Amino acid sequence: VRAAMAGWARAVRGLLLDVSGVLYDSGADGGVPIAGSAEAVRRIKASGLKLRFCTNETQATREKFVKKLQGLGFDISVAEVTAPAPAACSILKERGLRPHLLVHNDLLPEFAEIDKTNPNCVVIGDAAENFTYANLNEAFRVLIGMEKPVLISLGKGRYYKETDGLKLDVGAYMKALEYACDVQAEVVGKPSKRFFESALAEMGLPPEQ
Amino acid sequence: VRAAMAGWARAVRGLLLDVSGVLYDSGADGGVPIAGSAEAVRRIKASGLKLRFCTNETQATREKFVKKLQGLGFDISVAEVTAPAPAACSILKERGLRPHLLVHNDLLPEFAEIDKTNPNCVVIGDAAENFTYANLNEAFRVLIGMEKPVLISLGKGRYYKETDGLKLDVGAYMKALEYACDVQAEVVGKPSKRFFESALAEMGLPPEQ
């Protein structure tokens, strides 16, 4: 086993790191770093390995997310982060899709460059307080009004924990819209294969490395 | 065909009638009767056939629902109505279940006699404006906190139309909770077999009549 591991380690030229729950524990106060993780990031970078941070964070722009992590002591920059919203933006551009957005207010700047007039798809993220009865009905009406509804979901998490308790995640609301419109959402973000592939492409490495 | 129909008609001793969309069209103003339907109800009753009204209405008590239909000119009484909430109440009593309710305020009186302390199940109806982010998280926490979550849904409709547009129905929110908790809801109301059977039992007739 050790020989196989050593062989594997020699082939590896880059790492994808999860963030929430791996580098830090989130919370209403901004969260706390997990012991040793900031040092681990420094050592990976010093070793010459390529590194990308791969997150399903959709409650904030990468800028805000990175600023928080820098404040917790991490050596991280916006250019090193792969996140669902920018991945969705590249899909929207590629396919000429104009989204109706049901996302967190703090995520809106990620879609600033995207044409949102006369929507021909719905993009749903972890909208949190924006998951109101009115907003869900509105997103539903946009979808059901399409000849062939296109629903893009920034993740498919079931729920997550915050300091004040468990919260339903984007996956639950995605299922509600899927059922109402009899469609299947296209999931951007982990564990979608395309999401990991785009992170690798950004590192310039093939999967086996 | 005519002979077969005549034979079938001779065997029939009772009828189950749908209400919304059959006897009247609903709307914010209370709705309008469908032409000829009030007269049809009178003729069925005059013919000596047994009659029950079978509805998936979960936004109001039977009392309120019947009062509205009487106002529209229908010969109908509370004792003639089979609806999901009372059907759910008989299941709750039978199984010793104490519900956490996520339902419309106007439906609450139907559950007045039910013990709701220390809940061991969740009952979801078309809660409309009560489908808030906070209320959905609360219902979810009650469910996920159970060793074996029990979710009872007063219907599984996808959506319906009101005068101000389409609205997501209880089925969509049921799917959200099902996914988040990895459970399957027990659906009370049409098209559940048990629901129709209880309507027949209330009429005192077997299915073939």
From TrEMBL, chains A, B:
Q: Report the family membership.
A: Belongs to the HAD-like hydrolase superfamily.
Q: Its encoding gene is what?
A: Lhpp
- Annotated signal sequence is none
Location, primary (coarse class)? cytoplasm
Q: Give the function comment from the record.
A: Phosphatase that hydrolyzes imidodiphosphate, 3-phosphohistidine and 6-phospholysine. Has broad substrate specificity and can also hydrolyze inorganic diphosphate, but with lower efficiency.
Work out whether the entry's keyword set contains Electron transport: no
Q: Does the keyword Transcription regulation apply?
A: no
| Keyword annotations | Cytoplasm, Hydrolase, Magnesium, Metal-binding, Nucleus
Q: Where are the transmembrane segments?
A: none
Give the protein name, as stated in the record: Phospholysine phosphohistidine inorganic pyrophosphate phosphatase
Reaction(s) this enzyme catalyzes, per UniProt: diphosphate + H2O = 2 phosphate + H(+)
Which GO CC annotations does the UniProt entry carry?
cytosol; nucleus
Which leading EC class covers this enzyme? hydrolase
Query: Entry's InterPro entries?
Result: HAD-like_sf, HAD-SF_hydro_IIA, HAD_sf, LHPP/HDHD2
- Look up the record and name the cofactor or cofactors this protein needs: Mg(2+)
> What are the protein's GO molecular function terms?
inorganic diphosphate phosphatase activity; metal ion binding; phosphatase activity
Give its E.C. classification number: 3.6.1.1
Q: Where in the cell is it found?
A: Cytoplasm; Nucleus
Give one Pfam family: Hydrolase_6
